[in-house]
Amino acid sequence: MPAIDYVTRVVESIHEVNPQAWDALVFALPDPSPFLQYAYLAAMQTSGSACQATGWTPHFLLLENAGELVAACPVYLKDHSYGEYVFDWAWANAYQQHGLAYYPKALVAVPFTPVPGARLLAKHAAARAALIQELLVWCQDRQLSSLHLLFLSPTDANACAEAGLMLRDTVQFHWDNSLTPYPDFDSFLMTLTQEKRKKIRQERRKVADAGVQFRWLRGNDIRSADWDFFYRCYERTYLEHGNAPYLSRDFFEQMQTQMPSNWLLFIAERNQQAIACSLIALSDGDNAGVQGNPKVAYGRYWGALERVDCLHFEACYYQPLQWCIAQGYQRFEGGAQGEHKMARALLPVKTQSAHWLAHPAFSDAVARFLEREQEGVGNYLEDLAQRTPFKAANPP
Q: By C-alpha distance, which of 382, 1, 327 is closest to 171?
């Protein structure tokens, strides 16, 4: 096959990217993610959530052939490691201790969004491989310390490994409903061990006995007042932990206007007053205009104005799972970390990131660390597999 003559461009504003060409790459994926859509990334930048002022200086690397966009990815210059969920603080500290600058570093990721999926948008394998090489050249030209690609699809991870990048394993917890879809929530509960089934019923009863009821809204049914209430809860949750929220109110306003069908809101009410909510992201074939794509729900944000025992579990797990079963969704991803999710039937899955460090000695040291860490993650997954919440005769 003759070599393809690519033209590489790197732009600093997403408004310099053709929205239709970008989304055509996203929607061509077998499992298109709403978090890579043009509107989502544009909202991150234009709302001031992921921009130079917050330590996320955006760039967009574009590969074109004969005027056609054939590969692309977002790449951020970071001067910290917040909002990533793949932790490299120890690497940064080691650089500092040796008088070397770790920041700025290059990051290919969706800001504040630890959802696995494609990060390297490409029409074919050759374009994907070329995109990785252009990323490395860009980092070297800018004399950056490192390049990190987070929460990769298996295709992206394999391509990065072939290019010589180091892979790092982490663990998330996902619920699967694809093999034999559950007809209802009670049928799902009956596949669990008696202990786990009893625990879930007890937790749900506590919320109901507290007089809390739920309603859900999707897409354009989520009114501005509902988004305002959500943001009030979301902001309060961050402030209670001593941090300002990552995402601005304007970001969610853009989600309301630009991507409404990708959002599902559960609102908890007591005495006809809203007291808590959880926001779920959605991806299905209808959103992308492609039939046959998996229907996936992603647990994203939650907050409460009142404390009710077990309300978090009801809002963030049981209500979404019940909705997913009723609506025929095949997967619910519960977000980063959280071994407690296993008790709610979210099972461990391995996620991967890829890393390149410019300094040879540090690269060798990190490679040795990752080898040991990978073995530990493997042992951890084996241990978790022995603690399945499902009956032996009812694997997910």
A: 382
In a 13 Å sphere around the CA of 29, the CA atoms on its Cβ side amount to 29
CATH superfamily of 7-171+350-385: Gcn5-related N-acetyltransferase (GNAT) (3.40.630.30)
Distance CA 246, CA 235 (A): 9
Cβ pair 63, 57 in contact under 8 A: no
pLDDT digits (tens, 9 = 90+) for 152-199: 999 999 999 999 999 999 999 999 998 889 999 999 999 999 999 999
Which CATH number is 178-329 given?
Answer: 3.40.630.30
Give the dihedral sign, CA 306/309/313/314: negative
Torsion of Cα atoms, 331 then 335 then 336 then 340, to 10°: -80
Q: Which residues contact 48 (CB under 8 A, 6 or more apart)?
A: 54, 248, 250
Q: Among the listed ranges 31-45, 181-195, 312-326, 328-342, which one has the minimum average pLDDT value?
A: 328-342
User: Which pLDDT tens digit goes with each residue over 297-322?
Assistant: 999 999 999 999 999 999 999 999 99
- pTM score of the predicted model: 0.95
201: left (phi over 0), alpha (psi -120 to 50) or beta: alpha
